[in-house]
Write a structure and sequence with these properties.
alpha+beta; 39% helix; single chain; two-stranded antiparallel sheet; binds adenosine monophosphate; binds magnesium ion; globular; 15 helices
């Protein structure tokens, strides 16, 4: 596909806007005052057929600061509902987001959505705005997750302004443009179920199936076609994707922070980056969202919360299926899918050829020693690759930073390593081969809070270079780059006081 140098050449196809009016409100964005382009992402642009030179045009800044419509677009705010922190919250909806339109790309269609573009009928008590701080965090995290190979919405552009926005202090406004094949959430389904509108619920489910899960439409060979069948198969497919996503998150020490059902993508993508965090020192019960005082969304709770959220989705589908037992059966694959994906990922992270009996105990031993030492999550796995297991292997260079160095209780770390070495020797995999394989799955660089914070501080001074540097690194977080040693280190002392909350 030849890349276009202006937005005029984009091909749009606004399928969500073609749904009945009840699904959204037509709204135009409220433009940022005196906007400047902080960053634009040529990788995401290429997905919609846009050439890098298009990103520096005045037209690009106009459209993604909300001043001019997307050519061929149909701007709207979508309605949805959801459970927030375990409690039914009723109607929510795009309170500060706006779908500009859906653009055709070579690998499929992408919806382009502004976040922070002003009031909508769903803004409730909010101001419809987003601050630069949280917009930089969302922009970076989307691309960092993609670099890790984890399903996620993408980020196309980040535009800022001096317009004041009141949070705990006065901050400044920004708009991040996100891209996703769809922004439909579990809460989109809950909305029509709670409104007792099975007709619209069916329209939504059919839309999602036909566009994103066409394989769920026909009954598998040997099974009778029923009216409920496609919806049950949809639930089973979303269950699988969600379980796999949870395994992805766990394996990199990612905490989402606000796993409400309105933030759960029907496509199994990581959606809505607010008070998320990549763990530094490992704490199994780590809660990244300062506002989550009960720890509902702690790291070790995420897989169970994913399941709980799927139950809410299943409940929302009940009017279409009318069979609780069948819905339960569709959810039943969750645990096995999660465990299987998690074991596969952890075996690779540990450098094993495959997961085998007994590995659970070894892994739990590692979690335990990491937890008690608050050992760095990312570096623990990365340095494990360099642990020599062969008899007579040379000792590490005296200045090399080793696995044990991450542990205050070095004896405990060594005791665990003894079992690890034993397991690796059984595998019969040469150290060099194991190390290379481990380096391909254990990132050296992750979007640590303090790295995002440095990028935010620079962006506030109108310096986007730190965002650019981080994106370069996080696009391929597995390859060590000379000169970037500080990006691979545990956080400095000042980072201890950083807090992220729902305020964004
Ligand atoms: P979140 O948990 O951040 O995904 O947001 C939950 C709900 O609050 C969604 O309906 C958002 O659109 C809405 N919301 C969050 N922040 C704002 C804001 N500043 N103005 C309007 N609506 C907001
Ligand atoms: Mg949300």
């Amino acid at each position: 596909m030849k890349l276009a140098s202006t937005l005029q050449s984009l091909r749009t196809d606004n399928s969500f806007a073609a749904l009945p009016n009840a699904f959204y409100s037509r709204v135009s964005p409220q433009p940022l005052g005196d906007p400047w382009l902080v960053h634009a992402n040529p990788e995401a642009a290429a997905l919609i057929g846009l050439a890098p030179e298009a990103l520096s045009t005045p037209e690009f800044l106009d459209v993604f600061s909300g001043a001019r419509p997307l050519p061929g677009g149909a701007p709207l705010a979508a309605v949805y509902s959801g459970h927030q922190f375990g409690v039914w919250a009723g109607q929510l909806g795009d309170g500060r987001a706006l779908l500009l339109g859906e653009v055709q790309g070579s690998g499929g269609n992408w919806e382009l959505q502004l976040k922070g573009s002003g009031l909508t009928p769903y803004s409730r008590m909010g101001d419809g705005k987003a601050v630069l701080r949280s917009s930089v965090r969302e922009y970076l995290a989307s691309e960092a997750m993609h670099g890790l190979g984890i399903p996620t919405t993408r980020a196309l552009a980040l535009v800022a302004s001096d317009d004041p926005v009141i949070r705990e202090t006065v901050e400044t406004a920004a708009i991040v443009t996100r891209m996703s094949p769809s922004f439909v959430r579990f809460g989109s389904f809950e909305h029509w179920a709670s409104r007792q509108r099975p007709d619209l619920l069916r329209v939504l489910a059919d839309y999602v199936i036909d566009r994103f899960y066409p394989e769920c439409r026909p009954a598998p060979a040997g099974e009778a076609a029923t009216e409920a069948g496609p919806y049950l198969r949809l639930l089973a497919a979303v269950t699988r994707k969600t379980a796999e996503l949870m395994a992805d998150w766990q394996a990199v020490g990612f905490c989402h922070g606000v796993m409400n059902t309105d933030n759960m993508s029907i496509l199994g993508l990581t959606l809505d980056y607010g008070p998320y965090g990549f763990m530094d020192g490992f704490d199994a019960h780590h809660v990244c969202n300062h506002s989550d005082t009960a720890g509902r969304y702690a790291w070790d709770a995420q897989p169970a919360v994913g399941h709980w959220n799927l139950y809410r989705l299943a409940g929302a589908l009940l009017p279409l299926v009318q069979d609780e037992a069948a819905l339960r059966a569709a959810l039943a694959g969750y645990e096995a899918t999660f465990v299987d994906a998690f074991h596969r990922k952890m075996a690779a992270k540990l450098g094993f050829r495959q997961w085998q009996a007994g590995d659970e105990e070894l892994l739990n031993g590692l979690w335990s020693v990491m937890h008690h030492n608050r050992a760095d999550f990312t570096l623990s796995f990365r340095r494990l690759a360099e642990v020599a297991t062969a008899d007579g292997a040379p000792a590490p260079a005296p200045d090399a930073e080793t696995f044990e160095d991450l542990y205050a209780d070095r004896e405990a770390a060594r005791a665990w390593l003894a079992g690890y070495r034993e397991r690796v020797r059984q595998d019969g995999r040469p150290d060099a081969e194991r190390a290379a394989a481990m380096h391909r799955v254990n990132p050296l660089y992750v979007l640590r809070n303090h790295l995002a914070e440095l990028a935010i501080r620079a962006a506030k001074e109108r310096d986007p270079s730190e965002i650019d540097r981080l994106l370069q690194l996080l696009r391929d977080p597995y390859t060590e780059r000379p000169g970037y040693e500080s990006y691979a280190r545990v956080p400095p002392d000042w980072a201890g006081s950083l807090q992220v909350s729902c305020s964004s």
